[in-house]
Design brief:
Layout lengths: L6 H8 L9 E2 L2 H4 L4 H16 L1 H24 L6 E4 L2 H11 L7 E5 L4 H14 L2 E5 L8 H9 L6 E7 L11 H10 L3 E5 L11 H4 L3 E5 L11 E5 L25 H7 L7 H4 L1 H9 L5 H24 L13 E6 L11 H10 L1 E2 L2 E3 L6 E6 L6 H15 L1
């Protein structure tokens, strides 16, 4: 298989990143990748801070954090007053779970597609408080969004206190109809905590329209900010209940200028704030890579992921069942069941990396012995990358 997608324009976009050109990078979803211009901006900020750390921390930091909050809020249609800047989504999910009150008889609802780290956090909180975990099994395969809603709502009881839900599932790359699910749960009096790790920058995110009690997401994945940048968005009636995992001076900030909610999260100890402060630059750089800005970036990446999925399915011989509308910039392809290890240890993944320089995860599925090949698409990719993957899969099958 040979081809070229986008020609010189693609090559120009791919040069925005410092990725190894000998490697086919099909795993943007796990760790992201930050454009060179954004890293240069971050490094310039670090040099500026180190020129006079005291002046920056006391005179500039707060306004810079406020600027990042405002830019992020505009991008996801949220309220800057309810946005806290945090290091990653797992931190935010832990913060919410450990701030809320649970007790004997309470149920925490999640799905069998929930991200492992967040599932562990929920299990930890349940064990400490006496609450129970309830797992909704999503349809397999998924052929329409309504079936996802039904599977979740069928597990709601009068004891369900909180639902922890992915906006985009990690291992299977499914986009859940999150606004519809949150609306149904709200009408039943159930609080919602949304793990939106993969959503911003992959698909349009409308926090006001979703209406979750807490929504947590990364900026280092599809927004392409430096690693260590994420946000937590909290509804007005729950902000005063949320306390960061590290309690510091902001805990006693009542009566001071500004928001206590922000004060608690903005200063949990001295750290490097430049990942967060580089988020506006990342949004600008990625938007500028395509004429249509972010809407074109999302559409391009979706179309490329669906093309990659088709090429992989053709080689593997698996039928395409899940509608393209339930995938964004990632797509998951089912593999034959087998006893495997954890993510990044599957023999197929090792073969693709070591024999073909194709970096792509083979992830455990929600059912025992299930495996999924999860591919990502970013504007530094082209169809040739997925044809190379398909050729490698063909060799593996042979």
């Amino acid at each position: 298989m040979t081809g070229r997608y986008g020609g010189s324009m693609h090559r120009q976009r791919s040069r925005l990143w410092g990725l190894d050109p000998e490697v086919v990078h099909l795993n943007h979803g796990s760790f992201g990748a930050t454009p060179i211009a954004v890293l240069e901006y971050q490094h310039a900020l670090q040099r500026h801070i180190e020129a006079n750390p005291t002046a920056f921390e006391l005179e500039e930091l707060q306004s810079e954090l406020d600027r990042t909050r405002a830019v992020l809020a505009a991008f996801v249609n949220g309220d800057p007053a309810g946005i806290a800047l945090i290091p990653n989504t797992t931190y935010g999910v832990n913060t919410a779970l450990r701030s809320l009150d649970f007790g004997e008889g309470d149920e925490i609802l999640l799905t069998d597609h929930s991200y492992g780290a967040c599932r562990n956090a929920a299990a930890y909180v349940a064990a400490r408080t006496g609450a129970s975990l309830v797992v909704a099994e999503l349809p397999d395969p998924v052929d329409e969004a309504g079936a996802i809603v039904s599977a979740i709502m069928d597990r709601v009881t009068t004891s369900t206190k909180l639902a922890l839900l992915d906006h985009v599932t990690s291992s299977t790359a499914l986009i859940l109809p999150i606004a519809e699910i949150v609306g149904e749960l709200r009408r039943g009096g159930v609080m919602t905590l949304v793990d939106g790790a993969h959503a911003p920058g992959m698909i349009p995110v409308d926090l006001a329209g979703i209406g979750a009690d807490v929504y947590v997401a990364n900026c280092h994945k599809w927004l392409c900010a430096p690693k260590g940048a994420a946000f937590l968005a909290a509804a007005p009636d729950i902000r005063e209940r949320l306390v960061p995992l590290a309690v510091s001076f902001g805990y006693t900030a009542e009566g001071t200028e500004g928001s206590r909610f922000h004060a608690m999260f903005d200063w949990t100890g001295t750290d490097d704030p430049t990942a967060h402060l580089s988020v506006p630059r990342a949004l600008e750089v990625v938007a500028g890579a395509m004429v249509g800005g972010w809407s074109e970036v999302m559409r391009h990446n979706h179309d490329l992921a669906i093309t990659g999925r088709r090429l992989a399915h053709e080689v593997l011989g698996e039928p395409i069942v899940t509608p393209a509308s339930l995938f964004g910039s990632m797509a998951a392809i089912p593999l034959p069941d087998m006893d495997g290890g954890a993510v990044y240890t599957d023999p197929l993944q090792t073969f693709l990396r070591e024999k073909h320089d194709v970096v792509i995860p083979v992830t455990p599925g929600p059912r025992p012995r299930q495996r999924w090949l999860r591919l990502s698409a970013q504007i530094y990719n082209d169809v040739d990358d997925y044809e190379r993957l398909a050729n490698a899969l063909e060799e593996w099958n042979g």
